[in-house]
């Protein structure tokens, strides 16, 4: 078993391995296969294609191309996860802080709640405005 793992490790040298895009392809493949079972069986081929693509990416030796694909994927994916994590923070702190945007530059700001009308100075553009918190 140990020798097998060593051989596998050697064989994987210089190959792409798993990255975020591969994991995403596998997850989407699983979801599609679930839909295939529930709704429309030929969709199963779409999930097979996604699995094959994921395997191709894992074993690919063209690292530059695979990294470029993964970066392109992360460029789209990161803002989505950041938006969700911001919503979670905003919800968790909803009793302590009021969140709002600077009316001039759109920067997201927060201020402790319950202080009535306060004068806000934006950290980025230094615009001043009055806000009820
Ligand atoms: Zn501003």
Major pleated sheet? 2 strands, antiparallel
The ligands bound in this entry are:
zinc ion
Distance between the termini: 63 Å
**Number of discrete domains:** 2
Helix content: 55-70%
Radius of gyration, Cα only, in angstroms? 24 Å
Number of strands: 4
Strand order of the largest sheet: 1-2
Global outline: elongated
Structural class: alpha+beta
In a nutshell, what does this entry contain?
By secondary structure, the chain is an alpha+beta fold. Helix content is 57%, strand content 15%.
Name its key features:
single chain; 133 residues; alpha+beta; two-stranded antiparallel ribbon; elongated
Q: How would you describe this protein?
A:
The protein is α+β, with helices and mostly antiparallel strands and 133 residues long. Helix content is 57%, strand content 15%. It is built from 4 helices and 4 strands. The strands form 2 sheets. Strands 1-2 form a two-stranded antiparallel ribbon. The chain has a two-stranded antiparallel sheet with strand order 3-4. Strand 3 and strand 4 (128-132) form a beta hairpin. Helix 2 (20-38) packs antiparallel against helix 3. The N and C termini lie far apart (63 Å). The mean pLDDT is 93.
Q: Secondary-structure map with pairings?
A:
Elements: H1 2-12, H2 20-38, H3 44-59, H4 63-92, E1 97-101, E2 108-112, E3 117-121, E4 128-132
The chain binds zinc ion.
